[in-house]
Amino acid sequence: MNYSIFSLARAALSGHKNWKPTWRDAAPKDRYDVIIIGGGGHGLATAWFLASEFGIRNVAVLEKGWIGSGNAGRNTTIIRSNYGLPGNTGFYELSMKLWETMEQDLNYNAMVSQRGVLNLYHSDAQRDAFARRGNTMRINGIDAELLDQAALRKMLPFLNFDNARFPVQGGLLQRRGGTARHDAVVWGYAHAASELGVDIIQNCEVTGFTRDANGKVTGVETSRGKISAGKVGMAVAGSSSRVAAMAGLRLPIESHVLQAFVSEAIKPLIPGVMTFGAGHFYVSQSDKGGLVFGGDIDGYNSYAQRGNLPVVEDVCEGGMALIPMIGRVRLLRQWGGIMDMSMDGTPIIDKSPVDGLYINAGWCYGGFKATPGSGFVFAHLIARDQSHKEAALFRLDRFQRGAMIDEKGQGAQPNLH
Amino acid sequence: MRIVCPFCGERELGEFTYLGDAKPQRPAADAGEDAIYDYVYLRDNIAGPMSEHWYHGGGCRAWLKVTRNTLTHEISSVEPAAGAGAAKVGA
User: Fold this and answer.
1) How far from A382 is each of A122, A147, A185, A231, A246, CA to CA, in Å?
2) Class at the top of the CATH hierarchy for domain B2-88
3) Which residues face A405 on adjacent strands?
4) Which candidate, A372, A46, A49, places its Cα nearest to that of A180?
5) B41 lies within 8 A of chain A by CB
6) Any residues with CB less than 8 A from the CB of A280 and at least 6 apart, and which?
7) What is the DSSP code string of A57-125?
């Protein structure tokens, strides 16, 4: 169905009894041109771009549980394109531009809200590093503003500006950054892809790949039977190593748990997204009033989708150091998601060494903002067998070639990215 | 998650630092680039019981070899990793 002010009015006047499911829950067919493993934001976006941009409509998205039940439903909903390294800068801006048109493109309200993303700096050296990143962004046509303390005092009077150890000196602001409603992004892509004929198949776990005599992937074995395919793409962040292992591949990835938190609802306080530059703490306020925040990953390999208390303490300490007045706000919920931590902190979007299998992985804890861009370039790769120019550096073999994209400069230690 | 250090007893997680999978072994100095690539970058990324190196920085400062299930965080054994972790980080 198509959503408009009229469909909303019609549904309201008939007591909201006539809403139809927004996407079709399909049963698997015997064969598809393309199978995407993983019904999260990236997988569904890939399917939609395959159908809408690249004319491949005989597509299935296979999801082990229900769509959006992994990291797409567990993130802190931030969108931004404030990266400084070649490879990242252009790709995330491509994604940002797609966020700006997504709701019209999909005919779905994803509550994209460009309320600004502000990275705070606390020393002269950090200001210089932020100025450099801001300049890189502006040279590439991306908005960035370096704000001093006086400007921030007007904007955010409640910050702990005079902290003895980490005074807030200023910040780098990207006004076009912000937040989006994460579940609605999943449903929006499902809605639009389903309208174009994509089969979204839930409760269908991939258990293996079928290969021909030359080793080419010819389809997948699933908990709902064998399905053959011309090409198979995997977008299963968190479980990439496990799925790749079914094709005999080892990846430069470790799975780690990242926790996120939401407080009880309070009156409007935080106008945009804010990040503390002296520890790791980032926060925004949801439209319902809860403070949505997070920090570092726990730091050890995990598939458990729950974390431990030291990180809870560390994140809350970061919040207290930056905004002392939130000390009496109660924590409402916390949860954990499994991150594909790559060895340089940057994603992998590439053909795999196995013919017919395409990899979209290694999103670390930055996958949500990349959802539309990732879908677009992955669809491009699958449809044309060639990397999109904005994803041309996200190659699987870059570690062998010494062409890492290490935004934080941490080296091959995934729990530090 | 708590770790029972063989030297200090049961201690909270914040005292420990994680290094990672204990399986990769540093290749010989004359091993080829592929062996180095494999050692530095590729991981089994096990879902299940995994042997790993932890450092007890908040206690005895010993390197430990911990067997832990990555699906449940359950720890089944902790033993000293004499030299193993220290060699890996070049200490």
Assistant:
1) 44, 42, 22, 7, 20
2) alpha beta
3) none
4) A372
5) yes
6) A295, A296, A314, A315, A318
7) --EEEE-SSSTT-SGGGTS--EE-----STTHHHHHHHHHHHHHHHHHHHTS----B---EEEEE-SHH
The owner of tokens 């090409």 is: A231
In chain B, residues with a C-beta closer than 8 Å to the C-beta of A309 are 12-13
Q: What is the pTM of this model?
A: 0.95
What was the ipTM of the complex prediction? 0.91
Rounded CA Rg of chain B = 14
Is residue A84 within 8 A of residue A226, CB to CB? The reply is no
What are A245-258's pLDDT values in tens digits?
999 999 999 999 99
Residue of B16, B19, B43 to mutate, testing the A interface (most A Cβ within 10 Å of its Cβ): B43
Tokens 């790791």 belong to which residue? A280
* DSSP category for residue B23: -
Chain B interface includes A410 (CB < 8 A)? no
Residue type, A249: L
Q: CA nearest B70 in A: which residue?
A: A302
**Cβ contact (<8 Å) for A303 and B52?**
no
Task: Please give the structure tokens belonging to residue A266.
Answer: 């309070």
Domains of chain A plus CATH, in order, are: 24-108+181-252+344-416 (3.50.50.60), 117-178+254-342 (3.30.9.10)
DSSP at B14: G
Walking along chain A (417 residues) 10 residues at a time, the average pLDDT comes out as 90 92 96 98 98 98 97 96 96 98 97 98 97 98 98 97 95 98 98 97 98 97 98 97 97 97 96 95 97 96 95 96 95 96 97 98 96 98 98 97 93 89
